[in-house]
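To whoever is covering the structure queue this week,

Two jobs came back overnight. Logging them here so there's a record in the thread.

Job A:
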Amino acid sequence: MLKFATILVGGLSAMGGWAVVTVMDVPEYFVAGQQYTIEFQVRQHGRTLLNGLQPELLVGAGSGRKETIPAVPRPATGTYAATFTAPSTGPLLLTIKSGWGSSELNLLPQIVVARGTKRPAMGAADRGRMLFVAKGCTICHASADASDDNNHLKVGPDLDGGRLTRQYVLQKITNPASQIMPDLGLSDAEAAAIAAFLSGERGAATGR
């Protein structure tokens, strides 16, 4: 499998390379009829931020047809944003096409609630699973616990939950001493949630 992944990455590089999409922030749920802006970054080979692209956000609900929304560039390097209105029903399906080859990111199905409805805050590990996918981690790192629908290049080690300690994960994602893994600028809360997910913890709610 590792040999196949190496061949795949090499083939993609020959065609212009591959990219990883990282979503800046994802709410725990969406409110029907409310407008949201999804801001994200695109990195060639997971590291180099790319300007001058034409990314798109695909928005769908359930098995219905997805709406395509062009993203616009933000002032920050390699950063883009797309605004949409949450549908009346869920699950909400969001796909970001990077604009760099065929690279894209499929977020986990998102919950949609009616206006005036509140949901309990997610547990830290559940929030971490959502972020692990939204930050593009599964493109390079396979994790059976993530259960996402993305093309896994597996250029990094497998990260199945429960095999890593919380402290080890925090160290790696907040201070990545690697020529490959980028610093995603995670907040303390985001890093803690991802660490809870990868270490198999079931901690307190995140409060988001």
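Job B:
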Amino acid sequence: MQNLCKSAKSVDKLFRHERDLKTMASPIRILTAVPICDGHDSAINTVNLEFIRHGIEVIYLGYHRSVGDIVRAAIQEDVRAIGISSYNGGHIEFFAEIVDLLRKKGADDIKVFGGGGGTITHEDAAIMKRKGVDEIFFAGTSLEEMVKFVHQRYGKPRGKRTRAKTLDMELAHKLSEIEEAAGKSKKHQTASSAKAAKAAAAGSKIEHQTSRVVGFTKDHVD
């Protein structure tokens, strides 16, 4: 019985998740990458798939990517955040360079987070956060926690944005605005359809309740 209850809860959670995805204005878009001179990609691939499964749009640049590559792509794709998986050391400097370059490019609304298993210590993480990194995930952090963080931290609407400094950034901002508008329109249509369906179902229920059935029969003699 307990297993059946767990299964029912899992199914209900899945349906609620699917419903939420359909009513989102537009998905959270993030960019992920592995730093230069680092070929460890099994962890980031697992995280990417979990993000995608929960409705987060992921642009994965792959491994052995430079700071310039990552920042340029993040600006062109107008992502909400950059996720870095680092296992080869040098993470304090690498993350800090990404944050600094984003600021120089006028794109400091793009945030940075990441992890590195046991490579990044708690002391390192404290330094990285002081340098502008949003969050560092350590070994043992569940995928659910990472997904929850991304939804809560980057799922809110952006505030007023500074004027784009480059054509790449201006184009990216315009495309995001178009996508947001289309997403809101779709969300409104979905909500209207759901409301109409609910009203129709309610009307059908009332009609069913007030219907009367009259039958006639007669005695049957063998």
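Note for Job B: Residues 198 and 204 are 10 Å apart (CA to CA).

Please reply-all if you pick these up so we don't duplicate work.
Q.
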